[in-house]
Amino acid sequence: MGCCTGRCTLIFLCTLQLLAALERQVFDFLGYQWAPILANFLHIIIVILGLFGTIQYRPRYIVVYAIWTAIWVTWNVFIICFYLEVGGLSKDSELLTFNISQHQSWWSENGPGCVRKETPMAGIKDLDSQSYVSVIGCALEYRYIEVMHSSVQILVALVGFVYACYVVSIFTEEEDSFDFIGGFDPFPLYHVNEKPSNLLFKQTYLPA
Question: Do residues 154 and 78 touch, judged by C-beta distance below 8 A?
Answer without folding.
Answer: no
